[in-house]
């Protein structure tokens, strides 16, 4: 359910009773919202806050692709029975580059839990967010709540949002590229490391970027016609790497669903989402473009 609020009073009126109701029903409750709002809720809950898992979404959900596997499913899958979550992945400080991944995340939540017993409330600031963002809320939530009560969304169509933000990514102004196949997987990692270091990425983040390139290039070889192209460059405070191959990613939840215990494979894109600050993908017939952002 999407909660449309304006100001702190409406925010707390919409979230705190929902949380307390869950606690009264002995449901595990998690609250994953931006830090300021997390502080508001914690204060309003008083002693009951100790019974709630409190998560700062600006950290845990900086990369929207990390929210499902690392926050929502991680909480729900480790607890039997019904669970209750307040999740706020979109706030006024989100960048235009991040937003398409955020909108797709909100749409994909509708397909991620299957028959799992879960109640989820997603707050949106009516006064701080753009009109097109609020229009997407209508499409990604079957029910909306606000000062006037609850109502079904006549625009609910999460598939359309996933497709709407499957957008070509702007070409970099200058980026060196490296073509790879099975015999050059080691070389592509060296290329990524050298370029990331030249772009000024911190040493520990260089390791993360190389790990992301290793996972993506291995996927290209296994699932993308056996070869691909990687590019690394610096742009607007980030070091970016992009892998392009001829594979077709058919599962929209790939990389957003944790691998099952004992599952062979299926961990590469999840790992990429864990280490990156943002992951954007563009899927077109016969090609997959994956662009990964690391704050420099």
TrEMBL record:
It comes from the Bacteria. Gene3D superfamilies: Histidine kinase-like ATPase, C-terminal domain. Residues 3-142 form the MEDS domain. GO terms for molecular function: protein serine/threonine kinase activity. This is Anti-sigma regulatory factor. It comes from Amycolatopsis azurea DSM 43854. It holds the Pfam family MEDS. PANTHER family: ANTI-SIGMA-F FACTOR RSBW (PTHR35526:SF3), ANTI-SIGMA-F FACTOR RSBW-RELATED (PTHR35526). InterPro entries: Anti-sigma-factor_SerPK, HATPase_C_sf, HATPase_dom, MEDS_domain, RsbA-like_anti_sig. Residues 179-291 form the Histidine kinase/HSP90-like ATPase domain. Keywords: Kinase, Serine/threonine-protein kinase, Transferase.
């Amino acid at each position: 359910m999407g909660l449309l609020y304006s100001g702190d009073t409406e925010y707390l009126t919409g979230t705190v009773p929902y949380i307390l109701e869950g606690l009264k029903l002995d449901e595990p409750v998690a609250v994953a919202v931006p830090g300021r709002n997390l502080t508001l809720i914690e204060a309003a809950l008083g002693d009951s806050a100790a019974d709630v898992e409190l998560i700062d979404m600006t950290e845990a959900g900086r990369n929207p692709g990390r929210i499902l596997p690392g926050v929502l499913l991680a909480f729900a899958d480790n607890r039997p029975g019904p669970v209750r979550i307040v999740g706020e992945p979109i706030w006024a400080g989100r960048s235009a580059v991040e937003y398409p991944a955020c909108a797709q995340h909100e749409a994909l939540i509708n397909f991620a839990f299957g028959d799992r017993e879960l109640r989820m409330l997603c707050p949106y600031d009516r006064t701080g967010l753009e009109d097109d963002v609020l229009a997407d809320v209508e499409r990604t939530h079957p029910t909306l709540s606000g000062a006037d009560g609850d109502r079904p969304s006549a625009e609910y169509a999460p598939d359309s949002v996933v497709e709407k933000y499957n957008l070509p990514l702007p070409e970099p102004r200058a980026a060196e590229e490296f073509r790879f196949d099975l015999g050059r997987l080691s070389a592509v990692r060296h290329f990524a490391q050298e370029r990331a270091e030249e772009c000024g990425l911190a040493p520990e983040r260089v390791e993360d970027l190389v790990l992301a390139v290793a996972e993506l290039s291995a996927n290209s070889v296994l699932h993308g016609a056996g070869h691909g192209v990687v590019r690394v460059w610096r742009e607007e405070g980030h070091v970016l790497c992009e892998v392009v191959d001829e594979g077709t990613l058919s599962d929209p939840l790939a990389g957003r669903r944790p691998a099952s215990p004992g599952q062979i494979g299926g961990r590469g894109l999840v790992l990429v989402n864990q280490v990156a600050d943002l992951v954007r993908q563009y899927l077109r017939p016969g090609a997959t473009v994956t662009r990964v952002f690391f704050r420099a």
